[in-house]
Design goal:
27% strand
Length: 395
């Protein structure tokens, strides 16, 4: 008889892991503290299916992300979830950015991504209003309804006799060599294995389970605008800048959305709460938790100028628009309409270095996913398979 596995977190990674385990014959119980699935990172991202372009060849992000671009597309199409593989442009807006663009081209090719270098005239065939001196065209990038993907995952989990329990906040985890006991505010569940996919709270669950993880989750808020309806015709698909290779963030970009409209953003500012979707959301315990981690101070000393720039862009719509006008100069002064924000769970080492790849730690009968950065949504089905492999190898 296969084991009973408790999965913490009903975002796309937790649900994908639960489905894969259910398909393999395990009995799965997903515990989610919120009243709905996909409430945090999954439900507040830009909806992009990434191609695998940006990631270090041979890294988990590269291998899982490239495979995920295909598997997520296939899953959406198979289960009636709206998806559009529209392709994207990554644009160099001045000659100084061209060397980095060419390095990105080589990285993409090394990862097996269908990427081509195009001239400014060719770029404008895709995006007539874009400004660039050179660009990359990536055909495998698309957009999808990730909340719809999660709803399909829940249906499939239940078909495999699994269960997703909402409103089930975990307050205790105890492992022995015979079982793992997970306690919520309403019940105590005895299982064979435990998988932590709790995202913004994953390191806290690891500590609750008796581990001392080598990383701390630091929340970064990504703020979005939408283009006003009269400006949406200026963007046909996805337009990205050349990213700073020293940072895990891709820079503000323009993304046509599945449900209509165009997202603009996100920036990246330190959030004052792990669920801090606005400046007024302040959680003293979360702030203290971040400030006690020496890695945050070391990160701040290294990137303080970048941090100041991001805060100023957060506080000034004019600065935000100026960044977007580097990509599409025709955007008018009244282009931007405020919309939702997301909070990214960024794992940070004690020495101040950002955890750039997927990262997990193990305990007795436990796996704790402590960093699942972009392209985690894209690669979720692949991550779920890998976690299931790890779980079965250890049992």
């Amino acid at each position: 008889m296969n084991s009973h596995v408790v999965v913490a977190g009903a975002g796309i990674v937790g649900l994908s892991t639960a489905l894969e385990l259910g398909r393999r014959g395990h009995r799965v119980t997903v515990l989610e503290k919120e009243g709905t699935v996909a409430e945090h990172q999954t439900g507040n991202n830009s909806g992009v299916i990434h191609s695998g372009l940006y990631y270090t060849p041979g890294s988990l992000k590269a291998t899982l992300g490239t495979a995920g671009a295909q598997s997520m597309r296939d899953f959406a199409q198979a289960h009636g979830v709206e998806v559009d593989i529209c392709g994207k442009l990554v644009v160099a807006t001045n000659q100084r950015q061209v060397p980095a663009l060419l390095r990105l081209l080589e990285r993409g090719r090394a990862n097996g991504v269908p990427v081509t270098l195009v001239s400014p005239a060719e770029a404008r065939e895709y995006e007539p209003n874009v400004s660039c001196v050179a660009a990359l065209r990536v055909e495998s990038t698309g957009i999808v309804d990730y909340r719809g993907v999660c709803a399909a995952l829940v249906n499939l989990i239940e078909k495999h006799e699994g269960e997703v329990r909402l409103g089930s906040e975990i307050i205790g985890i105890h492992s022995s060599f015979g079982a793992v006991t997970v306690t919520t505010r309403a019940e105590e569940i005895r299982a064979d294995q435990f998988v932590n996919c709790a995202g913004l709270h994953s390191d806290r669950l690891a500590r609750l389970a008796g581990l001392e993880p080598a990383v701390r989750i630091i929340p970064f808020r990504g703020e979005y605008f939408e283009l006003a309806p009269a400006q949406q015709h200026l963007v046909q698909g996805l337009i990205y800048p050349v990213p700073d290779p020293t940072l895990p963030f891709l820079g503000v970009h323009l993304t046509r959305m599945i449900g209509g409209g165009v997202h603009a953003g996100p920036n990246a500012v330190l959030a004052l709460a792990r669920e801090g979707y606005r400046w007024g959301a302040v959680n003293t315990a979360d702030i203290v938790d971040s400030l006690r981690w020496p890695g945050l101070w070391r990160l701040g000393r290294k990137y303080w100028r970048t941090g100041v720039d991001e805060v100023l862009r957060s506080l000034s719509r004019r600065r935000f628009l100026a960044s977007l006008r580097e990509l599409v100069p025709a955007l008018s002064d009244d282009s931007l309409v405020p919309t939702h924000a997301g909070v990214r769970a960024q794992a940070l080492h004690r020495d101040g270095s950002l955890v750039d790849d997927f990262y997990y730690e193990r305990g007795i009968r436990q796996i704790h996913v402590l960093n699942a950065p972009s392209p985690a949504a894209t690669a979720a089905l692949e991550i779920g398979r890998r976690i299931a492999d790890e779980l079965e190898a250890a049992s």
